[in-house]
TrEMBL record, chain A:
Highest taxon above the source species: Bacteria
KW Transmembrane helix (keyword) present: yes
GO-annotated cellular components: plasma membrane
GO biological process, one term: transmembrane transport
Name the UniProt record assigns to this protein: Transporter
CDD domains found in the cross-reference section: TM_PBP2
InterPro entries found in the cross-reference section: ABC_transporter_permease, MetI-like, MetI-like_sf
Provenance organism: Streptomyces oceani
Upper lineage: Bacteria, Bacillati, Actinomycetota, Actinomycetes, Kitasatosporales
One Pfam assignment: BPD_transp_1
Keyword Transmembrane helix: yes
TrEMBL record, chain B:
Any one GO CC term of the record: plasma membrane
SUPFAM superfamilies reported in the protein's UniProt record: MetI-like (SSF161098)
Species this chain originates from: Streptomyces oceani
GO terms (BP aspect): transmembrane transport
Domain of life: Bacteria
Gene3D superfamilies (UniProt xref): MetI-like (1.10.3720.10)
Residue ranges crossing the lipid bilayer per the database entry: 12-36, 76-98, 110-129, 141-163, 184-209, 243-264
Protein name: Sugar ABC transporter permease
Family of the protein in this entry: Belongs to the binding-protein-dependent transport system permease family.
Membrane topology: Multi-pass membrane protein
Subcellular location: Cell membrane
Species lineage: Bacteria, Bacillati, Actinomycetota, Actinomycetes, Kitasatosporales
Keywords: Cell membrane, Membrane, Transmembrane, Transmembrane helix, Transport
Ranges for domain ABC transmembrane type-1: 72-264
Length: 318, 279
């Protein structure tokens, strides 16, 4: 872009010195000294504490690094990955992680879309829902976990007492330590915690849908569903793709909620991959092995996202 | 469309809204209910929504059982410094990223997005080792550094939106008067950015205040730990938690974030969408 502007500029008359524009100053990577001066305070910490450690972390996956070891760390090539292949505990936790991430992301999206569509209507008490919908976003993860532990509590929890009043259960259910119920119970908490952010983004997307199109479609006799399919959805789709992809990544990497709710129990039924890797690294001190797990997690996320996005984009082309 | 079916549709919408309100509100109300119940009431097996004997005993017990006050001060220190430093560093960078189009800007923007993808494990292990080399494990300064870096992507993202909204003509006028870029930034752009700065500061504060994982790994001694970590000490062994003080402490830990979010809600949404839509 800058090249075209310089050629279009009329040639300076002979005798007058050329104006000192930024482009005439010395540049490195397209930036002059001022720009570097402005960027460095942010670039340095990012390089030292984010890019650097990440590369270091990737390299750790190929070593036998351990906590508190006296002899030097050695390169062991792909050994970590080889043992990871047969680590059934890790793959169990991986399966739990996928079930968790897919169901939380899907439910989050559906519920958030419903709420966003409602909030986009001219309803009374809309302000209350808007305010309330932001609260889970503001709360610390740990508090959300504690709060739901109180809800699910076997004797003192409101859930059991309500269900008993409604005659739906005869005796108290131990939600968080039942093998079959723990994961669904934790998924509900994940949905509750992540819904607000998705709602806000979808609502902003809905407000960008052109109003005239809706009116035109309504005049042509299109019903609510038809208008949603033909007008709202196409306009909303890019926002939906972005937020569901991000949600999926965030959910797959989630830690605090489940740590507080169940610590991965009962019997590993809710042990998300992050919890597993955390224990491996900071309880057993197996840094290299845990880093290898992290790498596998990235790889799987990347593959799933590529497939998901490519299919959606292909649909859009047709 | 008949007016009958329209009325039904409206009623259905209100019903749905009511369900959402109930789902969103009931855990919050339950937390409050437990926090304000008298300790002897919590032992009963037939819990009620409204405390039969409202009391503040749980709050007193919470402060007795754990170093809650100290941890709140720790959180305040860590979150405030992290927010101030990250905004201080992010403002010039956001400005440069918007106003100079170069390979570095593209790479930085790409990194902001990519860094969201990495599992924390892969970040925390090397960070732990690096910080250990600098003797910054179990140090609040180390945690502040980590939060700054962790906040930066989002701070940059938000601020870029606000910088873009500043009309370039103002800056051109200043440039003609012979101002250098940094000078333009500080005397022309910065005053116009104030609302964006405040919003970004508050958001960074809330993120750091709420954060749990890094604090759990990096801070070992209870007198240095932040509030999120101290809260988990209430949980103790397998479900043996003392519910009243737990609820009271959890409620207290949420107040600052809620306060800021209430002030922030409109700005936050706009800021995010500016960064996203015009990006």
């Amino acid at each position: 872009m800058s090249a075209t502007t310089t050629t279009e500029r009329p040639a300076p008359r002979r005798g007058t010195p050329p104006p000192r524009t930024p482009s005439t100053r010395k540049r490195a990577l397209g930036l002059d000294r001022d720009a570097w001066f402005l960027l460095l305070p942010a670039l340095l910490p990012i390089l030292v504490l984010s890019v650097g450690p990440l590369l270091y972390g990737l390299s750790l996956a190929f070593t036998d690094a351990q906590a508190g070891r006296t002899e030097p760390t050695q390169w062991i090539g792909l050994d970590n990955f080889a043992s990871l292949r047969f680590d059934s505990l890790f793959w169990d936790s991986f399966r739990v992680g996928l079930v968790w991430a897919v169901s939380v992301t899907a439910l989050q999206f559906l519920l958030a879309l419903g709420l966003a569509l409602l909030l986009n209507q001219n309803l009374r008490f809309r302000w209350l829902a808007r305010t309330l919908a932001l609260v889970p976003w503001a709360m610390p993860e740990v508090v959300i976990g504690i709060m739901w532990r109180l809800v699910y509590h076997r004797d003192a929890g409101i859930l059991n007492s309500t269900l008993r009043d409604l005659q739906l259960i005869s005796e108290n259910v131990n939600w968080l330590s039942s093998l079959s119920l723990a994961l669904p119970a934790v998924i509900v908490v994940g949905v509750w915690a992540g819904m607000p952010q998705t709602t806000v983004v979808l609502l902003a997307g809905l407000q960008n849908v052109p109003h005239e199109l809706h009116e035109a479609a309504a005049l042509d006799g299109a019903g609510t569903w038809r208008r949603f399919r033909a007008v709202t959805w196409p306009a909303l789709k890019p926002v939906v793709l972005a937020i569901t992809s991000l949600n999926f990544i965030w959910n797959f990497n989630s830690f605090g909620l489940v740590y507080v709710l169940t610590q991965g129990g009962p019997g590993g039924e809710t042990r998300l991959p992050m919890l597993f890797a955390y224990e491996e690294a900071f309880r057993y001190g197996q840094f290299g092995y845990a880093a290898a797990m992290g790498m596998v997690m990235i790889a799987v996320i990347a593959v799933l996202l590529t497939v998901f996005l490519r299919n959606r984009l292909k649909e859009a082309d047709q | 469309m008949s007016s009958l079916s329209r009325t039904c549709g409206r009623a259905g919408q209100y019903l749905a809204l009511l369900c959402y309100l109930a789902f969103l509100a009931f855990p919050l109300l339950w937390l409050l209910s437990i926090a304000f119940k008298a300790p002897q009431e919590l032992g009963t097996t037939d819990p009620t929504w409204l405390p039969r004997h409202p009391s503040l005993d749980n709050f007193r017990d919470a402060f007795d059982q754990q170093p809650l006050w100290g941890s709140a001060l720790n959180s305040l220190l860590v979150a405030t410094s992290a927010a101030l430093i990250s905004v201080l560093v992010a403002v010039p960078a956001a400005y440069a990223l918007v106003r100079y189009r170069s390979a570095v800007s593209k790479a930085a923007t790409g990194w902001i997005l990519v860094s969201q993808m990495f599992p924390f494990v892969l970040v925390i292990i090397p960070l732990f080792l690096v910080l250990k080399n600098f003797q910054l494990i179990n140090s609040q300064f180390g945690l502040i550094l980590v939060y700054v870096v962790w906040n930066l992507p989002f701070a940059l993202w938000m601020l870029q939106g606000y910088v873009r909204a500043v009309p370039a003509s103002l800056e051109e006028a200043a440039a003609i008067d012979g101002c250098s870029r940094p000078r333009i930034l500080f005397s022309v752009v910065l005053p116009l950015l104030t609302p964006g700065l405040v919003a970004t500061l508050m958001f960074s504060f809330v993120t750091a205040w709420n954060e749990f994982f890094f604090a759990l790994v990096l801070l070992k001694s209870p007198e240095k730990q932040t509030m999120s970590v101290i809260l988990t000490h209430f949980l103790g062994a397998e479900g043996a938690a003392d519910l009243g003080p737990l609820a009271a402490a959890a409620f207290l830990a949420t107040i600052p974030s809620l306060l800021f979010f209430a002030l922030l809600q409109r700005r936050l949404v706009n800021g995010m969408m500016n960064g996203a839509v015009k990006g």
